Every structure is written in structure tokens, then in C-alpha cells.
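Give me the fold.
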Amino acid sequence: MTCDPQGEGGAHDEPGARDPQAYAGDGARPGAHGPERTAAAFHAVYGYAPGGVWAAPGRVNLIGEHTDYNDGFVLPLALPHTALLAASRRADGVLRVHSGDVPGGVVELRADALTPAADGGWAGYPAGVVWALREAGLAVGGADLHFDSTVPTGAGLSSSAALEVATATALNDLYALGLEPQRIARIGQRAENAFVGVPCGIMDQTASACCTEGHALHLDTRDLRQRQVPFALAAEGLRLLVVDTRVKHELGDGAYAKRRAGCEQGARTLGVRALRDVPYEGLGAALDRIEDGTVRGLVRHIVTENRRVEEVIGLLDAGETPAIGPVLTAGHISLRDDFTVSCAELDLVVESANAAGALGARMTGGGFGGSAIVLVEEADAEAVTKAVTHAFGAAGYAAPRVSPAVPSAGARRLA
């Protein structure tokens, strides 16, 4: 489930891809900013060289949507598009935050006087990380931070999680905190939940912190067990496309919280801790116990989606990657009909891509806009991209932005 506020109806804007062509056609120069440029920008803003440069990626979820806050299974992969952060620690407790992607100057705060839920705009994300670290009893003081990002906002690709994880990773190094990547992910989630006020699950931050190149991350969101699942698309003559519809419908505002509450209602009705505990084999009997049709659909999606995650992993382990395509499409149908979080643009991506020869497609992220993923044979990528773009034009929609999703590395220090 995406934590990108623009993908879930949140209130704040955060740094994203400044160049609108930085997420188009050929995938788009995801490293267009680069550590040297980010370090130079830090020097221009603050007047001295940074202590280092760090990166944390956005993510796309292969399968397992809305399951993370139901203690379920997810299978995300990190994107090559990253939030870059040049940073240095300060001894005076002052936190200064600046972005090359958001108009305005430096935001200045005090590390020991941060207030949750204060409307600090995009700066609330890095500030929330400082707050969460201090709340956890870690000795973190001031810092100077400068961000650049190629993770597009509003596309459901977790630009906010990338921002949080980059901040936590940098401060972990600058203050020698000794945190493991999964702990960094939990700090980022805590910042988003308790400081910014978005009740997201743990998937996005974990993907940004823990993914490895050439793999998708199988995460059990109940006990946080992880497994890196090989996902070598190029070696198999395949490509995974991300299609950013470039739309965000107001209908999505608040929808995440409503669906989360509906899932919790379903779990209470069935007497389980979370919907993850409803066995797939017992789904029919469970649905018979739920009178509310909306809640019934939510329950059906979560239980079948967990099964789809397991099915995809089984196919990947068996070397049958093309066979995951129909499972992706089935996931979209479930999100559209049972969880009711799709929209006309997302449906059009799936329908036009599959009609043009894609192996499978589905919406990814919170819904009501954002992005879809499309699995294609390498030889069909251009034709499918053209078919989707043509379908959008025929429907009167703005052209979507299409990029290959290359399984990439998680958060790391670059300089």
C-alpha cells in the first residue's frame, strides 16, 4: 500500500521529479540529479560541503495490494528512481531542510521542539524522522539537509517513503546510531503514521530500505520476515513497465482510511486478529458470516490477494515468470471490483495493454489514480506502450508516462 500522500489523499506535497520528462518513455534518466550535483546544490544552499550523500529509492509493488495493514504478504521491488540527500550534522540542535524540487527556501526547525501533526508541508517528512528517532531514545540533534529526487510524486511510487528512508539512513551514519535497514524502515513508518498523520503500513519504507538489485522483496508484514526473490526480467526477455496515469481523483481522499476501517470491521466480525488469519480454503464460509456487502468485498480481496502473492512467488521460484501475468490481471480485477479503488484511467491501462499483447497488468498503489504495472515480452514493449498511449489519447486523457521498472538496490550511501 503506497504511502505517497498524493496517491492516498494525504495533505502534504513532498519533493519529486522536478523535470517532467524525468519519468517518461525510456525510463528516463533516473539518475539525472546524481550525487555530485546534489552535493554541489548543498554547498550552494549552506555554504560548505556536505558530510555525505545518500539515496533511497521509490518502489513499485508487484503484487500484494492493501495487504500490509492486514498483516499480510507483499512483493515490492525498488525502482532506480531515488530521493537523493546531501547532509551534515549540526551541534546546535538546529534542523535545516531544503529541496531542489519544491519552491521556497530553507525550512528551519529545532530538533528538540518538533510537534507531530503540525502542518509543515513536505518538510514534515524529514522532520518526522528526526522526531521518531528522538522518540525512540536515540541521540540525534541538528542537521543540514538538501534533497533532490527523481521519484515522481502523485504516481503511487512511494516518494514520501524514499524521503523518510533517505533521511533516516543519513542520520544513522552521521550520528553512528547503528540501525539495521529494517529498523530504519520502522522509524520511517513511525514518522509517517504519528508525525505526518498518514496511517500507512510498513511495506513502502521496508522496500526502500531493504530491497536488493535484481530481486523483489517478499515481506511478511506481521513478523517482518523477508526473502529476496530473484526477479531477473532482462535475462528472461521480459520487461515490467510502470504506467503513470498522471491523475489523482478526489474520490480517493480519505478512501484509504475507510477501507482500512472496513477491513478491521471484517476481522472483528470473523473473530480474527487480522484478515491475514482467514484461510483461503475457508473464504466462502467466512463471507457467509458478513452481512455488509462492502466489507464482504474487502475481505474477499485481502484473502485472495494474499494467495496471489504466494502464487506469484511460486511461479518465480519455478522459473515461470511469464505465467505471473494472469495473476497480476486477476489482482487488478479484485482491486477494481472488490476493493473498489481503481478508476477509468487505471482500467484503461490494463485493458489496452492486455489487448495489445501484454502478459498481464494491474494497478499498483493506493488507487484512484497513480500508476499501473504491465508485464510484457521485451519485443512487445514498444507496441504495448504505443497502444496504451493511443488509448489515452482516444479517451481524451493526457498522455501517460511510461518507464521500465528495473529491480534496484535499496537505501545506501553514495559519497
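Residues 1-31 have pLDDT under 50 and may be disordered.
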